Amino acid sequence: MHKNSYSRPVYIHAAAALGPHGDSTRSERRVLHGDPPPLELKELVKTIVGAPLRQASHLVELAAIGSQLCLKRLPYAVPENTALYLGTGLAEVRKNEAVFRQVMPPGPGMASPFDFINAANNMAAFYVAKLGGLRARNLTVTQAELSFEWALHLAAADLRSGEYRQALVGGVDENSHPRANHLRRITLRPDQPMGEGCGWLVLSVAAEQACGELLEVRHLARGTDLVPALHAALAAWRRPDEPLTLLPGFCIEPAESARLAQALPELQVQDYLTLCGGFHSAAAFGLAAVFDAPAAAGLYVHLNRDLTGHVMLTGVRVLPP
Amino acid sequence: MSAIQIRGLGLVSSYGMGVACAVEGMRAARTGITPLTLFSLPFQDQIQVNQFDHAPFPPGAAGATAVIEAAVQEALTEAQLTRNGLQDAALVLGTSSFLFAGEAEYRHRLAATGQAVMPVVSPPGQVALRVAADLGIEGPVLTLTTACSSSANALLVAAGLLRRGEARRALVIGIEGLSTIALNGFHSLMLLDPEGCRPFDAQRRGMQLGEAAGAVLLEAGDDAHGDRLLGGANLCDTHHMTSATPDGSAMRSVMEMALADAGLQPADVALIKAHGTGSLDNDTAEAAALRTLFGTELPPFTGIKRYLGHTLGACGAVELAAFLGCLRAGFVPPAAGFSRPDPALQIQPLTEFRPAPTGAVMLNFFGFGGNYASLLIAHD
Question: Which domain does A265 fall in, by range?
């Protein structure tokens, strides 16, 4: 039986974001002018993971590189009893498609065993756990455009309740070329590049060695007016005179961001999607990338909505170094 | 965790529509094995499956949503709720993926138009949102895809939402359909037993796949009576993508964590529903875990995948609904398919019907990617 307060602070101890160019630092980030070319990750896997992942899918490679970067930035060895939460909107797009083509007519009719295994949507989380030496809770959340937010919410809840002291939380999605094929699965504006990548955060209940704080992941009912909702969240989260940045998620229209900025003049809008493109779990990239060194201290509020109108507001504080 | 009330169960399985159909089939020691008529397979080996009657449901991908809603309606009826009572509910869905629905849509379009157009496979999260919208659910909507432990984990996540007051009720759904892709894939891994599932049997050779939808309606409450979810746990066994740590230590760990979460000791467990896939690796590891955790005090255990088939990501909700249905009807079904003890396992499951015991019941669910879940329920 848990004796929970659910109000325990949750700190961020490390972060890493991997973009569609294989970029993982502020100096490597590049604004996308159109869809990124297909990303080959074999060499980066060897560099970051230390060995090839021979049978791994592209999605697994993305998740493995991003999570390992994050764990390498952690100022101590990650404990085995660290829970893992992975959000992915589309999960194994390429492997699912490969298996489908193998099995269904006019394909050869037989599935490749490794493609079949890799088509399992939780295989990325398995690899991340194996590479990180994590033997604890391991949940893959595939909740459309809010997959990462829900993964983050579950992680924070388990830390606040005392079930775990530490968690690794990520969001990962892959694209598929050509764009017309990918657009069968995802809604993007014509001017919006199709993105891919991942973002990872190590969360902890310990304040020592924290680089940030996860304030809350707030679920808002459909139809909620965002201006008062944002005011209410800021009233709870913001410190006096703290710099404030809004990170609009990939389902937030530019006009809506502009309306919010007009209603809250102190708000700076940061469009991280120009760096990573649009994908279901892009929020993970956006929230992890605010920790790219040198990070600017302040309050970052991520806003996202799924296609049915559910809204998630996420508050993260980057602490001064 | 504080106990969560189980207010309603729903099931669509190879026995038909409803929990009662499955319970009566299992009480009659009749397995739900059916001929595979949905499609032909590209290999000649004979296999056993559990297929439900698709006639009442629309063809293609829409069928999956309709099957879910049939199971949900039964759970709501038991709980004496209408759709109006779900506004402040959460919906948590567990499935391995919706490839089966994409495949059904492909076949449907091919049959209707003669054109083999590869359909978009709806991501599971979108299916959950659609079902939630149909039911008027405005609370959290979440989908877990952790292979065969998906809907067991959905039960744990839903319990957490209720415990934290994030929803008044939670509807947990497990759904899985038969597909060429799954049958072909498991066949390529040599994990299908042509004789059907033989859990913990010396001659076991693998699984028997099935399709089903299960729905479980949960509510927070302090009532110490009735059917309750007492606790549970999930962890990742990183030994291998598709096989368990052979000594069962990871499976034992998740069972220990589940007991701790429920505030129970091994001696408090009156009955176990094993995962019992009938595969060599799984049953060896699960037997080792049970043996070392419970020792000489191992309570009776059974496996029910010969009855229902292995419904993969749905099995958490499906087997909870069917097994709890049996307990409510006053009996524990034996492990159908088991006949010859495996000396290497040193334990054997139930071979005869038993009266349903009082006390805690453990339910195990283990999946690819080392994703394990163990639940503790109470039945009064």
Answer: 214-318
